[in-house]
Amino acid sequence: MDVETREFQSEARQLLQLMIHSIYSNKDTFLRELVSNASDALDKLRLETFRDKDLVADTSDLHIAIEVDADQRTLTVRDNGIGMTHDDVVNLIGTIAKSGTAEFLDRLKQTQDAAASQDLIGQFGIGFYSTFMVADKVTLVTRHPRSTEGVRWESTGEGTYTIEDVADAPQGTAVTLHLKPADAEDHLPDYTSTAKLREIVKRYADFITWPIRMAEGDEGEPQVVNSRKALWARPASEVTEDEYAEFYRHVSHDWNKPLETIRMQAEGTFEYQALLFIPSQAPLDLFMRERKRGVQLYVKRVFIMDDCEELMPEYLRFVKGVVDAQDLSLNVSREILQQDRQIQLMRRRLVKKVLSTVKTMMTEKPEDYETFWREFGAAVKEGLVGDFENRDAILGIASFDSTHDAERKTTLAQYVERMKEDQEHIYYMTGDSRATVENSPHLEALRAKGFEVLVLTDPIDEMWVESVPGFEGKQFQSIAKGQVDLGTDEEKAEVEQRRQDFADLLAWMTEALSEKVKEVRLSTRLTTSPACVVGDAHDLTPTLEKMYRAMGQELPPVKRILELNPTHPLVEGLHKAFAEREDRSELAGTVELLHGTALLAEGGELADPARFSRLLAEHLQRTL
């Protein structure tokens, strides 16, 4: 057969060099990854035979074998699963096709803490490359059941690999490692030791449902070295925290311990078991379009589907784990799942269980809750837009920045408890950052009167506040939209009198700025700034407008409202000059500047910066 030599993709070459000269102190990781890949291959073959009755494949004795040749210093991990075609080998091993590779390489180079860097292998789906931590050369032989010929791949990790077709390859995949010498200083154990291999399998893969066989000694018969007990099917009293943590690593490829473990068992007309995990750290792809959710579907302990979207909503995509149903068909498809009433019922119960677990965490493990919300809060708030059934539950576990305490977030229940006796609304303001909101003129009157304001800076906040009416009977009120009425009866009467006094000026300014604003009116929300720009109660915010336009949606321009502070010297001077002068051409320029500075104060953009600069220069010149 012709042997073809190819070069690795450039990112793969860099990755191989980092693996070979690795910063990882625990090199046992390689065997965990190989066994996990073999288990996946067996799962996929079993699933494919259910889906395709014409597939000719031997499924009578699916297993994983670990074979050692101490004389040749080789270690082989073999499975008789789905195998790979020639193209699969080139695409999956010669290339890193996943997004985020450059970020991975950068983080791997920067990370000095070995424990923190351990999880990076699994996070980017590059477990196969970890073999070069312990091997000078890696040989892979594989055959897909639909292929008559197999494929042999080999590399020393130096930037190239060879690939050739072979005639006599068995079904499945065998990865043979030509091991480096043991080196205690480099934390490199002797991986020809069956005792060492048995220890690694027990630690990382004891729960895998497929038998892992290994022979002890030269003449020994292969023995199954894993218990094969599904953790979710064992009584909770018999499972240790370490076993949960290891199972979590297996299903999530995350080296960190989970933040919370959730077990469920439903009995009756529809039986299922669930073992779910809330991670302690957000995955790097949490907000990437090609991200995957992490719940696997089993039927009677037979793997059916990875990344089962029908079991967990988008906003809980970070939840990992397994759901094992007793009454589903083994050849169930995603299309069938979308219509299946039992799956929908399972989903509802799983979601409620996750949300109630977080609610319990708030009171019983407040530090864990703070970690959870810091890592996943922005994703969870997406549920406020689409999951109407659980909206109150999501609001109940949400935390927000507020003006009450710059260091600690507040829950809505805590906000409501602190509300003033006559306060009707939960006040909030959205913005790009806390600094932008805190420096906004919209806050002035509320701050002066001691009202607390929620500071909402996540992009999703712009969406949910428009669709969620309130919490515990209190309505949400943006301090940058509509009218904010904070005054006493006496103050209201005074405001009304001022409106009458300023009526002519306001009408003239509304006409002068008609292309930029829909109205000019007096403000009750300002104490120190001369003016601010606000939206009508049901207008899109400027940030939301930008978001829609960035998504390619054409929107008509939204005119906003200019509010004036009648007690500010500049506005008082403008009012006086308007009453005294017949020629108001110069005042028109002042009005434009007033509107422009109000836009800038809220972090907005000027439609014509050059004109604004020219007007400002002219006005400054007249003051000299």
UniProtKB/TrEMBL annotation:
Keyword list, A-Z:
ATP-binding, Chaperone, Cytoplasm, Nucleotide-binding, Stress response
Q: What region holds the Histidine kinase/HSP90-like ATPase domain?
A: 26-183
Main localization is: cytoplasm
Note the superkingdom of the native organism.
Answer: Bacteria
Of the GO CC terms on this record, one is: cytoplasm
Localization, per the record, is:
Cytoplasm
CDD domains recorded: HATPase_Hsp90-like (cd16927)
Instruction: Provide the residue span(s) of the region labelled C.
Output: 547-624
* Protein residues bound to ATP: 33, 37, 79, 84, 98-100, 123-128, 173, 334
Coiled-coil parts of chain: none
Region annotation A: residue ranges? Answer: 1-334
Listed GO MF terms: ATP binding; ATP hydrolysis activity; ATP-dependent protein folding chaperone; unfolded protein binding
What family does this belong to?
A: Belongs to the heat shock protein 90 family.
Function of the molecule: Molecular chaperone. Has ATPase activity.
Known partners and oligomeric status: Homodimer.
Q: What is this protein called?
A: Chaperone protein HtpG
Q: Which organism is it from?
A: Saccharothrix syringae (Nocardiopsis syringae)
By which gene is this protein encoded? htpG
